[in-house]
Design brief:
mainly beta; about 0% helix; 8 strands; Porin; eight-stranded antiparallel beta barrel
């Protein structure tokens, strides 16, 4: 079972960018080892911001790739990373990197952006899965710095 989550915000002023998201898996690959599995999942997501600052979108499209390692018989990953490519309705883009944490959350950082997102480079978020459905997920993320 895969755990997903996403990002977003701007250093110092990104506290208004708490959001929720939906992800639909569009590709899944598994490499089986003797003591576990390496899983790669690609999702098509929509991120919806609760109270975005003026000039920021209420929603944006996102494509994410997740790579996770699962020990045989375990539901929670031993670790993993995610990278999300987001683009908003104005054509501005951002790139978000995430590292899965032992508590099941994902630590997210905006690593690059254009337009309004450029000033948010370095902003950090914490994502957490709210619920899973077959091939999909609903999650929340909030700023942490």
């Amino acid at each position: 079972m895969l755990v997903f989550a996403p990002f977003a915000a701007f250093a110092g002023g990104h506290s208004a960018l708490s959001a929720s998201g939906t992800g639909v898996r569009i590709d899944l690959k598994t490499i089986e080892g003797t003591s576990g599995n390496h899983v790669q999942a690609t999702t098509s997501d929509i991120w919806m911001y609760e109270n975005p600052p003026e000039g920021f979108p209420e929603a944006m499209k996102v494509n994410c790739n997740y790579f996770q390692v699962f020990a045989t018989g375990q539901q929670r990953p031993n670790g993993g990373i995610g990278v999300c490519q987001a683009h908003d309705p104005d054509g501005d883009i951002s790139l978000v990197n995430g590292v899965f944490q032992p508590d099941g959350t994902i630590a997210l950082t905006i690593i690059a952006g254009t337009g309004k997102w450029a000033a948010l480079t370095g902003a950090k978020f914490q994502g957490k899965t709210r619920t899973r459905v077959d091939g999909g997920v609903v999650y929340d993320f909030k700023p942490v710095n």
